[in-house]
Amino acid sequence: MTAPLDIGVVGCGFAGSATGLLLARAGHRVTIYERVLEPSSVGAGILLQPTGLTVLARLGLLDGLRVRGAPILGLDCRTAAGRSLFRLRYERLAPGLHGLGMHRGALFEALFDAVRAAGITLRPGTEIDAIDQIAGRARALDAGGRPLAEHDLVVVADGARSQLRDRSPELRRARPYRWGALWFVGADPDRRFDGTLSQVVAGTRRMVGFLPTGLGPGGGAVPLVSLFWSLRMDTVDDWRRRGLDAWKRDVLALEPRADALLDQIHDVDQVLTAGYIDGVMRRMSEGRIAYAGDAAHATSPQLGQGTNLALLDAAALADALETEVDADHALRRYATLRHDHVRYYQLASRWLTPFFQSDRSWLASVRDRLFPLAMRWSFLHTEMVRTLCGVKRGLFRRSLSLGPRPDA
Predict the structure, then answer these.
(1) What are the distances in angstroms from CA 289 to CA 157, 286, 311?
(2) How far, in Å, CA of 30 to CA of 116, rounded?
(3) Contact at 8 Å (CB) between 8 and 31?
(4) Rounded to whole angstroms, how far apart are CA atoms 123 and 125?
């Protein structure tokens, strides 16, 4: 076991908070730097997979999150004409297995409250502009190049648009996806979308999805659902000019059940815009610096794995420091532990996304023929469910262990 270390964490999002918590509980001195003065989480729904739920259980947060979340039993996708492309159910792998739809704010609240209760040093309103490595130490510098503190190691977990990652010699690429999404979170008191992440596609240019999102942050008591609409990011202004009524007609043409949800939207500013980054690193460590979460492996959300990968990063780093007696060896072990799993989901997301979000219309014909065929082949069907669950580490490598069941 590595002796107690002084560790700095850059970013107080899901990856940074989970990492800080696990390391503090292991006896390390942890300081979290967050550039925002009053941290909070913005965005819509996220899907916690069995892998992510396992880490949240380890943190002791899962029971509370289940109260705020919405159980997800599977993923359905069909064409605008009503043809089923795939219907995946978690229980194919184990009875009672499930995902959990959550509002990003609800998960952030749980993690941030736990960070404050753990006695971790928080430095909000502090932006780290660079990290120097000197004599086995990592020194955090502010925007003026002034040193803020020295640590035995620093974890960079400041998101998909991390400038620290962009300056790393381990960076292979970080480029925006051409396609992103519009998001809206609204009330679903009739529970029209309960139990399933549902998607409807029309070619490769139109896709709408609905994720049950639980009760949301704070004291919310009405079930929520997140609507997402695929959109090329350079057409956002065109979408605004067309107006809400035209867009609502497009959504209803694909999913008539969305009428009550769309009635809650009265202004375009209620609809959030989300763009995505394809960020790839050769290694997730560099001397006394470790990278975690979207800073290490930003992807398209097509497979719903971003938050789960971040939580697994936190657990892997804590485990590596627990296993190794030397911090340098621990960081190299961390990078090795995460390599195959992260690489599989980055490659799968990169190759899968154009079938659902792209200008390559011909891919829709391929998709609409191949996916129903894959569902009929038991092996491929099961592998698709394994990929959904977040447990795949490669085409032929042994999968990660499954997460907790509802009755666990």
Answers:
(1) 11, 5, 18
(2) 12
(3) yes
(4) 7
Q: CA dist 214 to 70, 71, 111, 173, 408, Å?
A: 4, 8, 17, 35, 20
Residue with tokens 């057409």: 235
Q: Which CATH architecture is the domain 6-44+56-67+104-176+278-389 placed in?
A: 3-Layer(bba) Sandwich (3.50)
Tens of pLDDT, residue by residue over 209-234, are 999 999 988 878 899 999 999 999 99
pLDDT at 405 over 60: no
282-318 residue pLDDT tens: 999 999 999 999 999 999 988 889 999 999 999 999 9
* Cα dihedral 159, 161, 165, 166 in deg (nearest 10): 180
Could you give the CA distance from residue 56 to residue 354 in angstroms, rounded to a whole number? 32
Q: Note the pTM of the prediction, 2 decimals.
A: 0.95
Task: Measure the CA–CA gap between 361 and 354, rounded to whole angstroms.
Answer: 9
SS3 206: strand
